[in-house]
Design a protein that fits this description.
This protein is mainly α. Helix content is about 60%, strand content about 5%. Keywords: Cytoplasm, Metal-binding, Zinc, Zinc-finger.
Length: about 375
Amino acid sequence: MELSTIKDGFDRVAKKQKLSNSKSQDVIDQVKNEIGGALVKIQSLNSETVPLDQKSILSDLKNTLNGSTPERMLEGLQKELNANIIKYMKLLEKIFVPDLSRAHRDVEFDFHTVNKILADHLYRQGWFEIGDSLVNEAGEPQAAALRSQFLEFHQILEALKEKNIYPALKWIIANREKLTNSGLNLELKLRKVQFMETLQNGTQAEALNYARAHLAPLALFNLEEIQKLMACLLWQGRFESSPYSDLKDPTQWAKITEELNRQFCSLMGQPYSSPLTMAVSAGFEALPTLLKLANVMAAKKPEWQAMMHLPVPVDLGNEFQFHSIFVCPVSRDQGSEENPPMLLPCGHAICNQSIMKLSKSNSPENFKCPYCKADVSVTQCRQLHF
């Protein structure tokens, strides 16, 4: 709807601009013709009366132009066009730059938690000086609890940018018992890219010595992978035409960095993506719906401020869903602590409030399942936990 409104407004401005240009060109052509006609008359004058006749012709030209008021006509056309452009700009501002405060609700924040989230985000991004300033100014040293871990992480990342795998390997070895299987496989991935770098930039002997020193201890559970690497020794200098050319994929370093990021955050008990980034992104996605809802409920501000659940769905996409949710197929309400999902003995599930309504409309204790019409007793329903 908004896109069609924007397109219609743009089409009106474009049409007006085209019409204004056409009319402006007509005015300019009219002035040009008047001046051209006066020049022709001056050039055809008899030499004996030139000064007098020239003055007469120029006087007539001046009167003609003053009578047609070309400047005023051009100014009027431009003002009319500007009015349409300003109107369109206001339309864009209304749609794309709305008053965000209308969607605001009075929420009590725990500022200690907010400061910690901000500090963690700054340290996660590697902005340690800004994070330290925030912690010091807020007077909350506990908000810097993760600083040292993120500092170590960024030192590892900087080393990987230089294709130096040893800080990452040191971290993996130190945390071997705590890492998942994918974390342990990260050591093999680091050794593989280092082997390929050695083979590409060094000699076969250097690559073979590296394999004996660092890949042989990993052969017990990764024999097939290491056999492929050993076969690469035979293709040195013509690796692009080998069956193993994918091992030299330049994106391998980026994939390893991403995997290391995931493992590091998991070991710290932190989400892979910054909570602050996710909250801002989710708010950005939900903002249009919230603004529309705020407009509809403008006359019911107290109700809007006290509302626990939104009366309209906000689809944020799968990337913003971190736990299972249940929407009652009868009432379309999302399950909550006050209105939990209930499992019926027939295997179907609806919310508790729907059960209460269905049982009241039938007998005090029994009702029919809205799906399979099986007889259900309220006492047989069990709460579901996700």
